[in-house]
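Troubleshooting log. The previous run stalled partway through. Resubmitting the same two chains, unchanged.
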Amino acid sequence: MNKLFKSKIYFDQYLFIAITLLSIMGLVFLYSASQENFETTFKQSFFVIFGLILMFALSQLDPDFYKNNSLIFLILSILLVILTLLIGKEVNGAKRWLDLGLFTLQSSEVIKISLPVFLAAYLYDKTLPINLFHTFVALILIFFVVNLVRIQPDLGTSLVIFIAGVYILFLAGLSWRFIGASFGIFILSLPFIWNNLLMPFQRQRVLTLLDPSADPYGSGWNITQSKIAIGSGGIQGKGYQEGSQAHLDFLPETETDFIFSVIAEEFGFIGVCILLLVFFFILLRCLYLALNARDRFCRLTIGGLSLLFISTIFINLAMVVGIIPVVGMPLPFISKGGSSLLSFYIAFGIIISMATHKKLMQK
Amino acid sequence: MIDLNRTVSEKKNFFNRLIIIYAFFGLLFLYFLYKTFSLQVSSYTDYEIAALENKTREILVQPRRGIIFDRNGKILVNNVPSYNLIISPSQIDDLDSLLDQIQPIVSLSDEDIEYVNKNYQSRAKLNRELIIKRNLTIEEIAKFEIREHRFPGVLIDERYTRENLYPNLFSHSVGYVGNIDDNKLEEILFKQELQPKETIFRYSNGHLIGQTGLESVYDSDLRGSYGKKIYEVDASGKLLREIEEIQELDGKNIYTSLDLETQKVAYKQLNNRRGAVVAVDIRNGAIVSYLSSPSFSVNKIANGLSNKEFQKLLNDKNKPFFDRAAQGRYSPASTIKPAIGLYGLENKIINWDYFINDPGFFILPEDQRILRGWKKGGHGNINLNNAIIESSNTFFFSLAYKSDINELIEFLSNFGFGKNICVDCFLPDKGLLPNPKWKMNNLNFGWVKGDTVNLGVGQGYMSATPIQLAYYAALIANKGILNEFSFVQDSEETAKNNLISTNINDNDWEKIHRSMIGVIESPKGTAQRLRQLRDFTIAAKSGTVELVSTETKEDYKIIRKVEEKRDHAIIVAFGPMPNPKYAVSVVIENGESGGSVAGPVAIAVLNNLLKE
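Second attempt completed without errors. Output:
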């Protein structure tokens, strides 16, 4: 008992330092992006501290704990999503938040972690490469969850959840033939998706991406102003708290979706590169950890969660520079929003746990 | 063993796939980095400018236009503040509901609303303001200001409009202002190096530019220099703080030589008849009265006339817009006679003792054509003095007959005929001093002696404007020495142009003056009726411009039934004699008699000028 207790602290200093650094950078950026709003920044820093502690705590748990309880987590998070649909707080026509008194929970942020963890656990004892039956079981589950989130509506997060689920299947050896066939079906069903699954405003966003200048004061406003903010930052940036696009309200959603534009405006290309370096460091560390994970469950989970992380970053960045249409997507560890922030601390807590717990007896 | 192999191959497969995705994202991030690089480095300048344009708004500051004074320092044209209700379309989401809310506070006509609806979209795109109602009343201003907070994007702006205190008196001399068009404004700002491309005009249609008369001629002096305020704005277009200001420079005041009281007299005298009056100070060529009649209200034109009213003025058969004083062409008729007489003296064709017999007509030797005088039976034995007093045609027919046409034309041009004699008149006409070359080019006929003879009595092709006639009168009055005419004089101007190289001595001038005094004072004078009207001794020469050539008085009686075919009445006069100060010309279209119709106008004007 005593021996077990003092045996080890499970800790990956590389990830921990990088994420702490990123979180501090995020607070600095947010202070400027929120127009020097102390309250917003203070609230966010509380989540950061809580998140770091949570991450550390979660990394102490044995991977088997996650594996054994993944189904419970999944069911709980599905219930949360359904509850959100029923009694969620409506903001701008979207029901994404569950008011928990102390803070409002964005339930889709929870399920985006529990789904890939469950899928990894589900595939733990199956024969790999994954066969058609298990593929379908997994896909049905994925589509079910994705749809629950999509009808909130939260297109961005549902997309990420879908991607995270598919990553697990892909890493589990989904056959190339199946991938090819699905891709073909996807292309063929694009008109159907366009007409039936996308809401009018979502369609407009796609059209805007293709030609933002068509209506620069209307639907093209966000992306036009974002590009101006980024472009006018130049190499060195305008200086901290000096971004005119951000501070004179030209840029929308500066605290959340478009926080990168603020960073790019105030810190320039140099600032952008430094931020990307920190992200890349974390991602490469995840890759290393995935390759050295102790078993299949850990491999799949680290792989899936790190790809979730990379996808979120890319979608946000690609959105603000106008590569993809505008979808609601925060920049991990930087954007305002407790749920999104905590979800990534949780994800990395799980990753560190899987990377640091070695099996005593390697099979 | 088998299990181990499987595990190894599964691991390998996993690594490959994970690396594929990482590589895929690596490429995506490279593309993202490229895109960011191109925004921040390659296209930096474009976006830097775009951000600057976003956050700054340059607002044009209109300088106050110069005030125009008469020669006694009385204000003729002033600026009055006017308050306009303005919207910024880019800040307004729902125009219709806004207009509905404004309606009870500031009443808008259908025309106003139509104008707003028509221009709303384009102004919103350009981020410019739009006037929705001009010239608000005090009550409307008060009502709006209490509720201003309810209307973001709506404001009241103070602006100066032009007010002519005597809107009908100076319609053609001072003229009027109008809204400047965007291109012209841009040109002006460009000259001032105000970088008009970057300036968002508050609303360009509130800026004024002189359109006619002195307002146009002296526009650059009156206008002053535009200023500019550069503000920092936020996305809603709210002005946050002033970054830079370029001070505007008010326009210069203009002190004209026009005399308000005389102008009033002339206006009253003409009484909206078609015609013109020009009076000048002969000592410096200063125009003291300048009237074209009928006139129109310049204030109405400058402050926006409805299309209907404008069309009515434009189609008025009396042509109120037409500046008869500077652009009306009239035959000088008998008023030319003193000049022809001076020509005869200059070239020694006649002297003061030269007499001819006037039987009432002149037979042109070339074709035996009979040219008649106005008096049946003629004036008998007559010399130059009496020929001017009685206006003998025969005397001047025969004098002209003996002249050399080119010499005669050269001589007449010294009196200002056929050329511009005004420094600052608005689009003056040169009239027509015909010559053989002109006739060949324009009418395809050679010059004949009959043309020269006709010129001798101011009929035929020759025409002159009322300012030219005034110049001609002033030149005789001042004995051949005269400045070009002007409304505004440099105070230091003393140089005088001697216009006639001369065989004519001072004695000749005095005799000409005396004969022109005789036109009024002599019992035989053609304008003797003016004797009762004049307060001073005045020299004059009247004329009657035949529009239709008639043989007998009976023929003319038929003709005169149509008003437009009646003779024009014309007179030139100057005084007080023997040391004249002012000269005047009067034309009254279809007035029939120079002496008795145009004459009283000239006398009234001179009486007023000289009474001081």
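Takeaways: Chain A touches chain B through 46 residues (CB under 8 Å). Chain A has one domain: 10-356.
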